[in-house]
From TrEMBL:
This is Uncharacterized protein. Residues 7-34 form a coiled coil. It comes from the Eukaryota. The keyword Coiled coil applies. The lineage of its organism: Eukaryota, Cryptophyceae, Cryptomonadales, Hemiselmidaceae, Hemiselmis. Keywords: Coiled coil.
Length: 103
């Protein structure tokens, strides 16, 4: 009787553990499904955000290239203005010299 009682007690413990394992397994499966759902829901959003980020970075690069081009053009314009101003000053000096020698 005593051995039979111990065997029955062990079988009951085993049954309880198996039920607990089933509950835990079902819980894990539910969590896995929830994780998959969240990944699919936010995965698309994340992909769109990354796509926007790439577009913004591309546009930023284009803007920086245009800004550099504008800076180069402004520098060239300043050089031409300076050269023109120097030519104008030289021309005035020549006219002043001509006016002095003519008088």
């Amino acid at each position: 009787g005593r051995v039979r009682g111990e065997i029955e007690a062990l079988r009951e413990q085993l049954r309880v553990k198996e039920e607990e394992e089933e509950r835990l397994s079902a819980g894990i499966q539910a969590l896995d499904q929830e994780v998959s759902s969240v990944r699919s829901q936010y995965g698309a959003k994340l992909e769109r955000l990354e796509e926007r980020e790439r577009a913004v970075l591309k546009e930023q690069g284009e803007c920086e290239a245009r800004a550099a081009s504008i800076e180069e053009a402004e520098a060239a314009l300043r050089e031409r203005r300076e050269a023109h101003t120097q030519e104008e000053l030289a021309g005035r000096r020549v006219l002043e010299e001509c006016a002095k020698t003519a008088s």
